[in-house]
């Protein structure tokens, strides 16, 4: 398959620039498109065959539901049932990097929802993604990568994984947040966080009041029957091994890294602890969102490097760094010394 690449300035474009891409989606094609979280691999949410091709191209398990992207709140209400008490909260959080799990109002193809009676819906903030949803209609999309690999935060990562396998790649630069959306289940009396993301637990609590945080979110453990993406399978991992450790293990881990051609993936503030020639900078602890922005990009850079193994010191699990640690726990294993 010949993959076309469309380069767009997200701050200077109009709907006419997206006409060809919209027609591809409407006719059952697959398009990789930018969002504020990571790049998505989209198909019409109403085209079962097109959605099936998402699973084939990615190598994605069929019991892993997709997220439906829409351009505005009114479209969300057409697809899903929302308790009126949540209207204000949803409007505060959208458009933005958050997905709501809700009861279906219409019958979507079963491969979109993995046969569940619920559906994950979000209103992206990225201008290109919203215009695409406006002209093509609701779009079902997971991240635009091969299943299990680090999510793509720029078009180059999409090209690495999917070039020649899909119809279009829209190149609109780097993703703003670099982590997949926060997912919150609004089908229960108390909202339940199913996946932490750019909208932090603290922010959700300030809007919803009490929210439930299941142990599987903290542990990043698997759930047998997932209601949303990221709950069951190993995700976000490079091909080479990645180990995480605590700072009390630092000295022993340095010795291990030297003997195994290892590299330390660390924030700017911690580079003083490690050998100069064995460092990949992740961001700054003083700017924690920079760590989230760079996580997947650095994991991909590590895969392309000459190092055999990577070591990452665990972060304190609060704010956006709880979301970072959720991804790291799925992408790595604890070091054994």
From TrEMBL:
<feature type="binding site">
    <location>
        <position position="236"/>
    </location>
    <ligand>
        <name>ATP</name>
    </ligand>
</feature>
<dbReference type="InterPro" id="IPR006070">
    <property type="entry name" value="Sua5-like_dom"/>
</dbReference>
<dbReference type="GO" id="GO:0061710">
    <property type="term" value="F:L-threonylcarbamoyladenylate synthase"/>
</dbReference>
<dbReference type="Pfam" id="PF03481">
    <property type="entry name" value="Sua5_C"/>
</dbReference>
<dbReference type="GO" id="GO:0006450">
    <property type="term" value="P:regulation of translational fidelity"/>
</dbReference>
<dbReference type="GO" id="GO:0003725">
    <property type="term" value="F:double-stranded RNA binding"/>
</dbReference>
<dbReference type="InterPro" id="IPR017945">
    <property type="entry name" value="DHBP_synth_RibB-like_a/b_dom"/>
</dbReference>
<feature type="binding site">
    <location>
        <position position="69"/>
    </location>
    <ligand>
        <name>L-threonine</name>
    </ligand>
</feature>
<protein>
    <recommendedName>
        <fullName>Threonylcarbamoyl-AMP synthase</fullName>
        <ecNumber>2.7.7.87</ecNumber>
    </recommendedName>
</protein>
<feature type="binding site">
    <location>
        <position position="143"/>
    </location>
    <ligand>
        <name>ATP</name>
    </ligand>
</feature>
<dbReference type="InterPro" id="IPR038385">
    <property type="entry name" value="Sua5/YwlC_C"/>
</dbReference>
<keyword id="KW-0547">Nucleotide-binding</keyword>
<dbReference type="GO" id="GO:0008033">
    <property type="term" value="P:tRNA processing"/>
</dbReference>
<feature type="binding site">
    <location>
        <position position="141"/>
    </location>
    <ligand>
        <name>L-threonine</name>
    </ligand>
</feature>
<feature type="binding site">
    <location>
        <position position="118"/>
    </location>
    <ligand>
        <name>ATP</name>
    </ligand>
</feature>
<dbReference type="InterPro" id="IPR005145">
    <property type="entry name" value="Sua5_C"/>
</dbReference>
<feature type="binding site">
    <location>
        <position position="181"/>
    </location>
    <ligand>
        <name>L-threonine</name>
    </ligand>
</feature>
<keyword id="KW-0067">ATP-binding</keyword>
<comment type="similarity">
    <text>Belongs to the SUA5 family.</text>
</comment>
<dbReference type="InterPro" id="IPR010923">
    <property type="entry name" value="T(6)A37_SUA5"/>
</dbReference>
<keyword id="KW-0963">Cytoplasm</keyword>
<feature type="binding site">
    <location>
        <position position="122"/>
    </location>
    <ligand>
        <name>L-threonine</name>
    </ligand>
</feature>
<dbReference type="GO" id="GO:0005524">
    <property type="term" value="F:ATP binding"/>
</dbReference>
<feature type="domain" description="YrdC-like">
    <location>
        <begin position="15"/>
        <end position="199"/>
    </location>
</feature>
<feature type="binding site">
    <location>
        <position position="60"/>
    </location>
    <ligand>
        <name>ATP</name>
    </ligand>
</feature>
<keyword id="KW-0548">Nucleotidyltransferase</keyword>
<dbReference type="GO" id="GO:0005737">
    <property type="term" value="C:cytoplasm"/>
</dbReference>
<dbReference type="InterPro" id="IPR050156">
    <property type="entry name" value="TC-AMP_synthase_SUA5"/>
</dbReference>
<dbReference type="GO" id="GO:0000049">
    <property type="term" value="F:tRNA binding"/>
</dbReference>
<keyword id="KW-0808">Transferase</keyword>
<dbReference type="Pfam" id="PF01300">
    <property type="entry name" value="Sua5_yciO_yrdC"/>
</dbReference>
<comment type="function">
    <text>Required for the formation of a threonylcarbamoyl group on adenosine at position 37 (t(6)A37) in tRNAs that read codons beginning with adenine.</text>
</comment>
<feature type="binding site">
    <location>
        <position position="151"/>
    </location>
    <ligand>
        <name>ATP</name>
    </ligand>
</feature>
<feature type="binding site">
    <location>
        <position position="64"/>
    </location>
    <ligand>
        <name>ATP</name>
    </ligand>
</feature>
<keyword id="KW-0819">tRNA processing</keyword>
<feature type="binding site">
    <location>
        <position position="195"/>
    </location>
    <ligand>
        <name>ATP</name>
    </ligand>
</feature>
<feature type="binding site">
    <location>
        <position position="37"/>
    </location>
    <ligand>
        <name>L-threonine</name>
    </ligand>
</feature>
């Amino acid at each position: 398959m010949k993959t076309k690449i469309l380069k767009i300035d997200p701050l200077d474009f109009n709907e006419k620039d997206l006409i060809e891409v919209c027609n591809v989606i409407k006719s059952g094609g697959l398009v990789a498109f930018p969002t504020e979280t990571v790049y998505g691999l989209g198909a019409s949410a109403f085209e079962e065959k097109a959605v099936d091709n998402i699973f084939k191209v990615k190598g994605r398990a069929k019991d892993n539901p997709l997220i439906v992207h829409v351009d505005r709140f009114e479209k969300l209400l057409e697809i899903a049932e929302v308790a009126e008490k949540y209207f204000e909260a949803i409007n505060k959080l959208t458009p933005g990097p958050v997905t709501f799990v809700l009861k279906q109002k219409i019958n979507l193809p079963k491969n979109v929802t993995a046969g569940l009676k619920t559906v994950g819906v979000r209103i992206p903030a990225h201008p290109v993604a919203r215009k695409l949803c406006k002209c093509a209609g609701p779009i079902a999309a997971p991240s635009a990568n091969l299943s299990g690999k680090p999510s793509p935060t720029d078009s180059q990562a999409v090209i690495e994984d999917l070039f020649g396998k899909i119809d279009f790649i829209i190149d609109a630069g780097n993703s703003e947040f670099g982590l997949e959306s926060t997912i919150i289940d609004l089908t229960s009396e108390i909202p339940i966080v199913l996946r932490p993301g750019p909208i932090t637990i603290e922010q959700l609590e300030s809007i919803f009041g009490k929210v439930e945080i299941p142990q599987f979110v903290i542990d990043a453990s698997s759930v047998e029957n997932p209601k949303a993406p990221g709950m069951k399978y190993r995700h976000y991992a490079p091909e080479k091994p990645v180990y995480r450790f605590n700072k009390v293990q630092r000295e022993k881990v340095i010795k291990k890294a030297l003997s195994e051609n290892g590299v330390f993936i660390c924030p700017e503030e911690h580079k003083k602890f490690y050998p100069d020639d064995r460092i990949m900078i992740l961001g700054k602890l003083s700017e924690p969102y920079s760590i989230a922005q760079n996580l997947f990009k650095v994991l991909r850079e590590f895969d392309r490097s000459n190092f055999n193994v990577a070591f990452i010191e665990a972060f304190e699990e609060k704010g956006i760094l709880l979301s970072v640690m959720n991804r790291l726990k799925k992408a790595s294993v604890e070091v054994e010394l």
